[in-house]
Amino acid sequence: MEGLVIREAVPGDLEALIAIFAADDLGGHGDTTDPEAYGDYRAAFDAIAASANDTLYVAEIDGMVVGTFQTSYTRTLTGRGGATLTVEAVQTHPDWRSRGIGAKMIKAAIEEARVEDCRLVQLMSNRSRTDAHRFYERLGFSQSHLGFKMKLKGA
C-alpha cells in the first residue's frame, strides 16, 4: 500500500483511534465516541506512552489514521528467559479494510520482535472473528493455545 506510514501514536491521534475502536461491532469492548469517555481513553493512552514495555502504533495514509495496533513485551523464565512480543488491539478503519494495511501492521510488529530478539510473537483474536483468524494464519501464525479470560469490569 503506497504512502502507508506506520509510526508511534501521538496524543493528536487519540480521537481517530477512539473512532476506529468504536466502529468495531465484533469486539464487544464497549468502545464509544461519547465525549464523557474521552478521559478514560486519555488516561490509558498516557499510561501506554509512559510504559517501557508497551507501544501504541498507528497506520497513516496522507495524514489520516487508518489503522492501529499495540505491542507489549513480556519476559518470562520459560523459554530460557526469552522475550515475547504480544500484539494487541489490531484494527483497521472499516473504510480501509482489505487493502493490505493489516498485513503491513502485523509485519511491522514481527520486525520489531526480531530487532528486539524476541523468541515469540503472539496475539489473541476474538473467537467470532473467523476472517481475522484466516488472515493471521496467512501471515504465518498458528492456533496453538486455548485462551481464557475473566472480566472484572463491565464493557
Question: Would you give an account of this structure?
Answer:
It is a single chain. The model has no long low-confidence stretch (mean pLDDT 92). By secondary structure, the chain is an alpha+beta fold. It has helices at residues 14-22, 38-50, 78-81, 101-115, 130-138; strands at residues 4-8, 54-61, 64-75, 83-92, 120-123. It has a five-stranded mixed β-sheet with strand order 1-2-3-4-5, with helices on both faces.
Largest sheet: 5 strands, mixed
Total DSSP E strands? 5
Major sheet: order of its strands? 1-2-3-4-5
CA gyration radius, whole angstroms: 16 Å
Low-confidence stretches: none
The shape, in one word, is globular
Helical residues, percent: 25-40%
Structural class: alpha+beta
Mean pLDDT: 92
Strand content: 25-35%
Number of contiguous helices: 5
Q: What is the chain-wise order of helices and strands?
A: EHHEEHEHEH
Ends: how far apart?
34 Å
Write the layout of secondary structure elements.
Layout: E1 4-8, H1 14-22, H2 38-50, E2 54-61, E3 64-75, H3 78-81, E4 83-92, H4 101-115, E5 120-123, H5 130-138
Parallel strand pairs: 4-5
Antiparallel strand pairs: 1-2, 2-3, 3-4
Quick structural gist:
32% of the residues lie in helices and 25% in strands.
Keywords for this entry:
five-stranded mixed sheet, alpha+beta
